[in-house]
Design brief:
Elements: H1 2-15, H2 28-60, H3 69-101, H4 106-138, H5 152-179, H6 182-185
């Protein structure tokens, strides 16, 4: 019960007493649902934009064959990975708060928190494992080489990336559907 009180206090502090806040006048459950839906929506839309617009455009324009692509893509993913970490943290925090203030059954609450933890782990693996390793493999250190070939490991890393990305999209979609569920809002 003490945790629920702290969540209510956090919710009030989140509003900041601002009467013009879009969260004022809503129940704590609804407020945390809005935070969860907003962070997951931002994260999913950014991921879809990066995966299905930006990267294919770079591929078709031939940028991936240029010598500076590894450093350019590292810069893009470095920024996006940090945004992913923020969205994952907001999603986990809101799921945790929702599990304290909603009247959903215990199994649903556990699923929501476990799903949010998995999303955070995926974002952490992108940020601190995959992106640095893939960028390191992509940097051409032999400037005198006449042919440039993609290391075999890169194909495996791309496969791991796409499996994690599909998992992320599925888990985030599941959480979005659970957040929109009326059973949570009771």
């Amino acid at each position: 019960m003490r945790i629920a009180k702290k969540v209510d206090d956090m919710t009030q502090a989140f509003n900041g007493g601002d009467k013009n806040s879009f969260l004022v006048g809503q129940t704590p459950v609804r407020q945390w649902q809005n935070v969860a839906i907003g962070s997951l929506g931002l994260w999913l839309s950014g991921s879809l934009l990066l995966d299905f617009v930006i990267m294919p455009t770079l591929w078709t324009t031939g940028m991936m064959e240029s010598s500076g692509f590894a450093s350019a893509s590292y810069s893009i993913f470095w920024i996006f990975n940090r945004v992913e970490l923020l969205c994952a943290a907001a999603a986990l925090s809101s799921m945790w708060a929702l599990s304290e203030v909603s009247r959903a059954d215990l199994e649903t609450k556990r699923e929501m928190i476990a799903s949010a933890v998995m999303l955070l782990l995926i974002a952490l693996s992108y940020t601190f494992v995959l992106t640095p390793y893939m960028s390191g493999l992509g940097i051409n250190l032999d400037v005198l080489a006449t042919t440039k070939s993609l290391p075999a490991e890169m194909t495996q890393l791309h496969a791991i990336y796409w499996v994690l990305e599909a998992s992320k999209l599925a888990i985030a979609g599941l959480l979005l559907s659970k957040c929109g569920n009326r059973a949570i809002a009771r």
